[in-house]
Specification:
The structure holds two protein chains of two kinds.
Chain A (H helix, E strand, L loop, with lengths): L8 E7 L3 H12 L4 E5 L20 H4 L1 H4 L1 H10 L3 E4 L1 E6 L4 E6 L2 E12 L3 E3 L12 E3 H11 L7 E6 L1 H12 L6 E4 L5 H5 L3 H6 L2 H13 L4 E3 L3 E5 L3 E6 L2 E4 L2 E6 L1 E3 L2 H5 L4 E4 L4 E4 L12 E3 L9 H19 L8 H12 L2 H7 L4 H4 L6 E3 L4 E2 H9 L5 H8 L12 H11 L4 H4 L11 E2 H5 L5 H8 L1
Parallel strand pairs in A: 1-2, 1-6, 2-3, 6-19, 8-15, 9-10, 9-15, 10-11
Antiparallel strand pairs in A: 4-5, 5-6, 7-16, 12-13, 13-14, 17-18, 20-21
Helix pairs in contact in A: 1-4, 1-11, 5-6, 6-9, 11-12, 15-17
Chain B lengths: L3 E2 L2 E4 L3 H12 L4 E5 L7 H4 L3 E2 L9 H11 L2 H5 L10 E5 L2 H16 L6 E4 H7 L9 E5 L3 E2 L2 H14 L3 E4 L3 E7 L2 E6 L4 E3 L1 E4 L5 H7 L7 E3 L2 E5 L9 E4 L4 E5 L5 E4 L5 E3 L4 E3 L2 H14 L7 E7 L2 E3 L6 E4 L6 E5 L9 H14 L12 H4 L1
Parallel strand pairs in B: 1-12, 2-3, 2-13, 3-9, 5-16, 13-24
Antiparallel strand pairs in B: 4-8, 5-7, 6-7, 10-11, 11-12, 14-22, 15-18, 15-21, 16-17, 17-18, 19-20, 23-24
Helix pairs in contact in B: 1-7, 1-10, 3-10
Classes of the chains: A alpha/beta, B alpha/beta.
């Protein structure tokens, strides 16, 4: 599929090929709506089902049955009649639903009557001293390599952080025959106090049994330390991991403290966002159909607020039902009430998990020389000092320190900068706000941009 | 509710408003500046940062030259170098025909006594801009021109104005302006302010103030687009502009390249929002592709647009109101007001404080639209 082969407009454009995008595209295409799904990766599945059609990890026990549940979604999407384009980077979406897309180095602008953003989540920044050393990576990155290439981390591996995905990755590594020297659990002890009230709901959710089985499986084979400080130490690469109560020689440190919505596309499209104090992140303002504040644009999946892969698929279906209703009122559709009920069941355990795994302030709001913005090499002290000088928000901070202006477009520093400014100015993240993100949402080369087909008016101007 | 009082109310916290407030305070007056968002939120903070005397309309050249003198000592005035660096601006001719036109303009300026624009041949162009494509036969240079960091500059003027005694109120919008006896009562979302004199430096929103004073102007709200690349090895020092095709081009000290030139986004001034037009940005990308082959594999990291005002004749409205004694206008800089900010603020403060200025600003009055 080349950019030139795309139609100039589609009824529905779905951005992202994870569970939400796959479920949305299948449902809409089956209802007879012209649907295209753009996914930036070489194969569909998103992060949770990465490599679902191609993974070399054939022993199903290693990645687990929750992973292989993605196979059904992928097969359904492929058979649905939706056009699925992999290797397609959406770099712009505007409120008029003009979609800027790049495939194999060539760019196109196409129109969409409806858009469902299903760009999922990203790992929360985990700015500890030394987190930029070679040998330190995120647990998500390690999981990507395991799913896509079947490769295990080599050398002495330490895992640190909090959240269900941390334990899942540990289990997957162990099942695949890997070794983990230690798991440093950064979950604050007092989190139990706020989580406890939600325990009854959690016990009824599908996550309950799985969660405890996972903890038992990992604890049986890996020493677990409860810690409140983690530091990566090394010269040109990681040599040791220090924590309160010890030091371990290590070749690889995998960090993870939960996931947060990937908001770049929605913010750049002009969608209103609000601070979620339980999940400590910004998320789009949505109605019960997952429609945003911009007409015709919905956000489904973890991008709408973290709820996990199964919930993501149900959210994708709800958003797709709303889109189809608007585009083709006489289409036959599944009963949305059933979908909503399933979604509710999936989301039931969330408050418990969120409160239990809420990362500690000290791991979200670093101090001193710890880097906050990796692209522009801005430290926590610089951000705090600049806030003290009167800088009121992340957008003003950009002008002083350039934080958030590098190629990652704030993905690795945005939440940290917002929280640091709020803490320093005795304000709140909601009041301080987030970066105003500018397209392109993903960097494109000048050559790609220059390859956009020439508009009629421009052609006339040249010919004249 | 009791009103606050001031000697002058300055409406708008762009570079122009901040500069005027600073110069008023330096003259010993007590200005209050009212800004609906924060200083430098719009065009003043996000423009291309060109500090350019080159290729200006004859009516604003005196202001531009007086401003340049301030730019060259900017740190002494505001305590910050504002990121100002002077490597000249080069207007590149893409054909012999275009170069002939430039020659006529430079000759005409000389006759009028202005010497800052200088015609250059192919060899000098290649010396100044080695990376330029070979098809360009020459151009014009203004050697003292340069570029600065726009948000940092606006913030520096704001900060210095406060230190000098101005009051700056941000996040407060002006809702009306009415005459009350011998003073103007400026209504805001945070209560009224009374002052005998008012400066309207409200940028893309200035027409609303003018209309309240009974002198509506044909102001167009525009949002010139810019984009910036990832870092590339240093290859160009001066700012480069084109005439025939819309382009301005400059490499910053950190290696990133800012590409602009006046292609417009769709502005929504009541929502503080702009929507970019990628077909026009692609046109800019093609122009850069042809002019600077070295840029072809560079990555575009970000594109944006700042909201500002354009007048039909592309020059600003500067000077006293035609209807309302004590009110002065300073808006409509038509996508080239950044360089003019320091000098226009100084001139405006002189005008407000003394009732006169030696700088010729006759061609810039509001009367040209209201007669």
């Amino acid at each position: 599929m080349n950019a030139a082969d795309l139609a100039s407009s589609y009824d529905l454009v779905v951005i992202g090929g994870g569970p939400a995008g796959l479920a949305a595209a299948s449902l809409a295409a089956r209802a007879g709506v012209s649907t295209v799904l753009f996914d930036e990766n070489p194969g569909i599945g998103g992060q949770i089902y990465r490599g679902i059609t191609t993974t070399p990890v054939k022993d199903r026990a290693i990645l687990g049955e929750d992973y292989w549940a993605g196979e059904t979604l992928a097969n359904e999407a492929k058979a649905s009649g939706a056009l699925i384009v992999n290797g397609a980077t959406v770099w712009s979406l505007d409120p008029q639903r003009i979609v800027g897309i790049s495939i194999a180095g060539k760019a196109r602008l196409i129109e969409a009557r409806r858009v469902i953003i299903a760009t999922g989540s990203q790992e929360r920044p985990f700015p500890i001293p030394g987190w930029t050393l070679p040998g330190v990576m995120t647990a998500g990155a390690a999981q990507t390599v395991l799913k896509a290439q079947g490769l295990l981390p080599g050398g002495r591996t330490v895992i640190a952080g909090t959240g269900p995905l941390l334990w899942l990755l540990a289990a997957q590594i162990l099942r695949a025959g890997g070794r983990i020297e230690a798991l440093l659990d950064t979950t604050p002890r007092l989190n139990w106090l706020r989580a406890a009230i939600h325990l009854p709901d959690f016990m009824l959710s599908p996550y309950f049994a799985k969660g405890f089985a996972l903890l038992r499986e990992v604890r049986a084979r890996v020493p677990v330390h409860k810690v409140s400080r983690v530091e990566a130490i090394g010269d040109d690469r990681l040599r040791e991991v220090a924590f309160d109560g010890g030091r371990l020689p290590a070749d690889l440190l995998l960090l993870h403290q939960g996931v947060v919505p990937n908001v770049n596309m929605a913010i750049a499209a002009g969608v209103g966002h609000a601070w979620n104090d339980r999940q400590l992140c910004f998320q789009p303002i949505l109605d019960h159909d997952f429609s945003t504040t911009v007409p015709g644009i919905a956000v489904a999946g973890d991008g709408a607020g973290i709820a996990g892969g199964t919930a993501a698929a149900e959210r994708g279906r709800i958003a797709a039902i709303a889109a189809v209703r608007a585009l083709k009122p006489d289409a036959s559709l599944p009963d949305p009430q059933n979908v909503r009920q399933r979604l509710q069941r999936e989301e039931m355990g969330r408050p418990f998990l969120d409160w239990l795994n809420r990362p500690a302030e000290s791991f979200r709001q670093p101090e001193g020389d710890t880097l906050v913005c990796r692209c522009e090499e801005v430290t926590a002290r610089q951000v705090r000092d600049t806030a003290d000088l009167g800088c009121e928000g992340p957008n003003q901070m950009k002008a002083f320190l350039r934080c958030g202006m590098g190629p990652c477009q704030g993905r690795l520093c945005g939440l940290t900068v917002t929280e640091l400014i709020a803490a320093q100015r005795k304000s709140t993240p909601a009041a301080v706000g987030y970066y105003r993100l500018r397209p392109p949402v993903k960097p494109i080369t000048l050559a790609e941009l220059a390859s956009l087909p020439i508009s009629e008016t421009e052609r006339k101007a040249v010919e004249r | 509710m009791s009103s606050r009082t001031a000697d002058v109310v300055v409406i708008g916290g762009g570079l122009h408003g901040c500069s005027t407030a600073l110069h008023l305070a330096l003259r010993g007056l007590k200005p209050i500046l009212v800004e609906k968002d924060y200083a430098g939120r719009h065009a003043s903070g996000v423009n291309a940062g060109g500090v350019r005397q080159l290729a200006r309309h004859i009516a604003e050249i005196p202001l531009s030259i007086s401003s340049m003198a301030i730019w060259e000592q900017i740190e002494e005035l505001v305590g910050d170098d504002c990121g100002f660096e002077s490597h000249g601006t080069v207007l590149v001719a893409e054909s012999e025909e275009e170069l002939a036109g430039f020659r006529a303009r430079v000759d005409d300026l000389r006759l009028k006594g202005f010497t800052h624009e200088e015609l250059i041949d192919r060899a000098e162009l290649k010396r100044l801009v080695p990376a330029v494509s070979d098809h360009c036969p020459g151009g014009v240079v203004s050697r003292r021109d340069g570029a600065a960091d726009p948000f940092r500059t606006t913030q520096a003027f704001r900060r210095r104005a406060v230190e000098a005694g101005a009051e700056v109120i941000e996040g407060v919008a002006v809702t009306d302006i009415v005459r009350q006896g011998s003073v103007w009562r400026v209504e805001t979302s945070d209560g009224p302010i009374e002052a005998p004199r008012v400066v309207n430096a409200a940028g893309a929103w200035a027409d609303r103030i003018a209309a309240r004073l009974g002198e509506p102007v044909p102001l167009e709200v525009i949002a010139p687009m810019l984009m910036v690349s990832s870092r590339v090895p240093a290859f160009i020092e001066p700012v480069v502009i084109l005439r025939g095709r819309k382009l301005s081009f400059k490499q910053l000290a950190n290696g990133t390249v800012v590409i602009g030139g006046g292609h417009l986004a769709q502005p929504y001034r009541d929502e503080n929002r702009t929507v970019l037009d990628w077909t026009k940005l692609a046109t800019s990308a093609r122009t850069v592709w042809e002019l600077f082959p070295v840029m072809r594999e560079a990555t575009i990291v970000r594109a944006w647009a700042g909201i500002e005002a354009r007048m039909p004749d592309d020059i600003p409205v500067v000077g006293p109101s035609g209807t309302s004694e004590g009110v002065y206008h300073q808006f409509g800089f038509s996508a080239h007001g950044f360089q003019l900010g320091p000098g226009t603020g100084a001139m405006m403060a002189e005008l407000v404080a003394t009732g006169a200025t030696n700088l010729p600003i006759d061609g810039l009055g509001i009367g040209r639209f209201t007669k």
